[in-house]
Amino acid sequence: MKPILHSICFLILTFFLNQSAIAQALVGVETGFVMTGYNDIRIPGNLGTLFSLKDDLKSKTKIFYRLRASYTLQSRHTVSLLYAPLEIKSAGRVPNKISFNGVLFDANTDIKSIYKFNSYRFTYRYHLISQTKIILDLGFTAKIRDANIRLYSTKQTTERTSNGFVPIINFNFKWNINEVWGLLLNGDALVVPQGRAEDIQLAITYKFSDPVNILVGYRILEGGTDSNSGYGFVLFHYTSFGFSYRFKKRGNKKGLMVNK
């Protein structure tokens, strides 16, 4: 599945860049540190052992990165593609037995885990308000998750994979304090009876030059689901630094900065 998704990302990114002369195209990179707030799992949801990949096993702070390409049409419609990989490792010794994915790990055994949650998202937004000071966009995101939890010791190993599609509401709010500084609030969020998902960022933006914007901020990634097949709820904190480059639109040297 991963090679297909990478090919789709490359093709769409190439399309954005080739079209930059006739519309507003943007590419951005975000990086920083991600740390675990909580990561509680039970697989299967009705028979497994509930334990924490943060408290029972100790998780590590990790450097992360995200890549985004956006494309704005007629100053009102924006489509974007996001690649957001995430992998967190944990390790520890649990005093009780753990039943995970049908495998029983003995008590007082050194156990390690790898939690992976890679996200591929295609977003469409409509610019409700596009003013000098205030920008407000609303739309939806089609998210494809490539998730995997691996638990292993010197004697045993097992992993649970979860791939799927999730539609999410997307929003983007920008307050241009002046010509250089701004405040940005954006993200994807959805709450349904089956579970919830939130990926929200609050950042300060700085216009370094005409095509280059810099941001520094905080991001929260939270959500999960509870069913017979599996229980899992996670919270991750991000301290982020990013920059974006906007290609100029032909015949329009005053292209409005509307995205992250």
Bulk shape = elongated
Strand content bin: over 45%
CATH fold group: Lipocalin
The first-level CATH class is given as Mainly Beta
> Going by CATH, what is the homologous superfamily?
OMPT-like
Number of domains: 1
Portion in helices: under 10%
Q: Structural class, judged by helices and strands?
A: mainly beta
In order across it, which strands form the biggest sheet?
1-4-5-9-10-11-12-13-14-15
In DSSP terms (H or I, runs of 4 or more residues), the helix count works out at 1
Q: From the alpha carbons, calculate the radius of gyration and give it in angstroms.
A: 20 Å
Sheet bearing the most strands, described? Answer: 10 strands, antiparallel, barrel
Given as residue ranges, the uncertain stretches (5+ residues, pLDDT < 50) are 251-260
Please provide the count of β strands.
15
The average pLDDT score comes to 89
Q: What sequence of helices (H) and strands (E) makes up the elements?
A: HEEEEEEEEEEEEEEE
Question: Which CATH architecture would you pick?
Answer: Beta Barrel
Report the end-to-end length measured between terminal Cα atoms: 28 Å
Structural overview:
- The protein is mainly beta and 260 residues long.
- It has one domain: OMPT-like (Lipocalin, Beta Barrel).
- It is 7% helix and 67% strand.
- The chain has one helix and 15 strands.
